[in-house]
Amino acid sequence: MSSITGKLTPKGINVAKVFGTLRRWPIIPVAVVLFLMIIAIFAPLVAPHHPLEAKFEKRNVPPVWTEEGTSEYLMGGDHIGRDILSRIIFGTRISLMVAATVLAAGAFVGTALGVTAGYFGGIVDEILMRLVDFTYAVPFILVALVAAVIWEPSLQLVIILLAIFTWPPFARQVRVETLQLKAMDYVAMARVSGASSLRIAFKHILPGIVPTVMVMASLQVGALVITESVLSFLGVGIPAPDPSWGSMVAQGRNYVATAWWIAFFPGVAIFLIVFSMNFLGDWLRDTLDPKLRQL
Amino acid sequence: METTGDRSRETVVGTVDERVVLEVEGLRTHFVTRWGLVKAVDGVSFQLHAGETLGLVGESGCGKSVTALSIMRLVPSPPGQIVGGRVLMEGNDILQADEHEMTQLRGSKIAMILQDPMTALNPVFNITDQASEALRIHKGLSGKDLKEQVIAMLRRVRIPAPEIRIRDYPHQLSGGMRQRVVGAIGISCDPLVLIADEPTTSLDATIQAQYLRLLKDLQQQTGTALVFITHDFGIVAKMCDRVAVMYAGRIVEQGDVRQIFDSPSHPYTEALINSVPKLEEKIDRLYAIEGQPPTLWDLPGGCSFAPRCPYVNDRCHEEYPSLLTVGDRHVAACWLREG
Amino acid sequence: MSGSNANLLQVRNLKKYFPITSGLIKRSRAFLRAVDGVSFGIQEGRTYGLVGESGCGKTTTAKMLLLLEEPTGGDIQFGDLDALNLDRDGARQYKSSVQAVFQDPWASLNPRMRVRNIVGEPLDINSTLTAQQIESRVSEVLGEVGLQAYQANLYPHEFSGGQRQRIAMARALALSPKVIVLDEPVSGLDVSIRAQIMNLLKDLQEEHDLSYLLIAHHLATVRYLCDRIGVMYLGRIVEEADTEELFENPLHPYTRALMSAALPSHPDIEREEIILTGEVPSPVDPPSGCHFNPRCPAVFEPCSEREPVMTEPTPGHKVVCHLYS
């Protein structure tokens, strides 16, 4: 606890303002995320060019504001002569779609297993938690590389790999929260009234877990986008010529000195989505914190 | 099993010292919350004499804990702030003291015991580390001297085998023992004033009895003045010389403990005493105060107790009653007592 | 109060031992005897109180009666139902007849459910009423506990502590039970609200001829609410008597210590001070002979050697103490 200063003058306190902002939406991150989602949905309408259309004479052309730039390729052209801006716009689709699918699958599986482990305990709990430990112990990148050799790199492969490694954190957190909720008096009361385990799980435990899962999911988006980028960077992610931000950065690494814009702009896009989603996730967690809620 | 004795209460060292060790005048502490301004403490005044025990009584939200925190200058600063009044100790208004001066006062001249012994002690430090903190800071003791003082301290609060216990960690002690260690820390530097904020709420009845007996004995030895914050009139009956009853941030009645029990002069005091079941007699029906505790950010105009008062009249809704004298050093804030 | 003298709910030699495990393989090394042979009966329309300090086993006993914990031994008889051997119909009948209200008004209601669903849940699970019938029953019980029908739409956090306990009572009443287990129902409430709730409990008991099992540590509350009282120490009932008899004539030294430790209701009341030495021992390793002997102010020769048996010095007043055998 901090103590007040020695001055006793009754000041007008603007603390009310501080409390107000806590409840307000973080406007910029929300705007960024909505903006990106709209772009992803309307990509064919928004993008000036086709992402795979390569114009030989536009190879490595710099962005529009430079001397040799052209208004056709606003962010410049890559080493094959494709419009970087258009590729970024279409890449939004891929990044967001991958993130959404993986999170949906991972959260679903993780929550189901976490609640089961937490509620039933005993041997079920042991088995599931060892499964979680096992998954944590496996080195993701290596598995991805091996998988890419056995099966050709593809969008589906990326999604499956990412999903497999996304569910464990959900399961762990959900299990802990299930244990806490299980001990609440109102769960005991439900049992006194004769509620079945299924009923308790769905009506009393799950609703308490949903906020946590939402926060976790939003905080995971950033990590997923980066991981997908890393996979593409290593060549085991979205295969060329599909425009994923990661593969664009990967392709641009050979031209960092001469055509920096090829890697730069996709990098900025990655930064924007990761930063915004992290910010949103933190805000969500603070807002949904039961201690701060008016109970 | 028990007798209604006639002997007047023996206070510490014979009679109550006339020396005033703590005087609170018009203390006001406000909090800004999302629902509005909460006047947690709204004009609280009392005097505490050397060796005296004052009971600060009220239910949750009445402002008794915030009063204690305000005296200690430990009010969390946003959202709270002391906005008026004086707190005089040895002639000085400690509300005007700077932080450095306050740290010197806290623990040495004025100390506080908190309610929850689980969180009052730091789980990662052993008993010696924590018990010796005040001694180290205020008396500059160290080494063997310090260790001996700590053992003496623990012995004083009747912890068995203190030489062994000093190396223990809080989780190795029972709730009652932890509370005694907290008490020992409080009195380690022989403060003038000790504020105890509901220290026995979490203790079992027999442990509570031991603890209260201990507090009384310690007070007799040291002559410390004690402010005992509680919601339990039983504790008041057992421990206190004077009583101040609080409601919605103000003192609504103040007087000698017998005056409060025998002639409660504020309807809230009367209702509170009558709504508690008595151990000594069979009661057919308890008196129950109607209504709900007040919402502090939305207090009614006039007397805050008016919505629940069985004797309410028009004047009560218009003007908050001033503290009127109803006996020798006995005041009550109620229009019924006028004239 | 009904005239029947037979016990509606009879508990016999109830035991609950928790194994203390150690090591990776979790072998059990010792037992924590939380409840060690408790027997009592609750009559129709009456209140039975279980009193004791923390660790005495009263809450565990209550949980066993609610089938939240499985007893290690003993039996629970409700009418002609054996509570520990129930088939599906029997279980439904028992659950409809034995309900509960817990101590913490903030934890016993699901913060994400509306009051209407909280109070209606027992009906939803156990009865064949339609949604509309459940709704009207919910309004009915809310009225009985002093709340208004429109409040069924609100969430728990919109109510005060006392009101939340009323909601908990409404939930307990929904199935028209015969017995309600009250685990410290007013300890978590403000002092001025406690009297309201205690009076409500009395009124509802009279209205519906309810039986209560009251778990409490505050003796004055127990005196006000109970007809018969069992005093528990370390998992056993050490004294049992009708309320007035117990308070006028406490026999067991522990009971006397509890009463002496209770706070007075007036500054001039002097009590014979019986300060017990030491702490409550752990139920894992209870003292030999009478469990109370290390702290007992009246301890004498047989106390540490033999366990005392239950005797009945006055009809209806039972005690487990060598002083009376």
User: What's the helical proportion of residues of chain C?
Assistant: 25-40%
> What is the straight-line distance between the termini of chain A?
22 Å
Distance between the termini of chain C: 34 Å
The CATH first-level class of chain A comes to Mainly Alpha
Low-confidence segments of chain A: 1-21
Largest chain-chain contact?
B-C, 50 and 46 residues
H/E element sequence of chain C = EEEHEEHEHHHEHEHEEHHEEE
- If strands are numbered along the chain, what order do they take across the biggest sheet of chain C? 6-7-8-3-9-10-13-12
- Count helical runs of chain C: 9
Percent of residues in β-strands of chain C: 25-35%
Largest sheet of chain C: 8 strands, mixed
Count of domain modules of chain A? 1
H and E string of chain A: HHHHHHHHHHH
Assembly type of the chains comes to heterotrimer
Q: For the report, how would you describe the main beta sheet of chain A?
A: none
Classify the secondary structure makeup of chain A into a structural class: mainly alpha
Share of helical residues of chain A: 55-70%
Do you know the CATH topology of chain A?
Answer: MetI-like fold
The appropriate CATH architecture of chain C is 3-Layer(aba) Sandwich
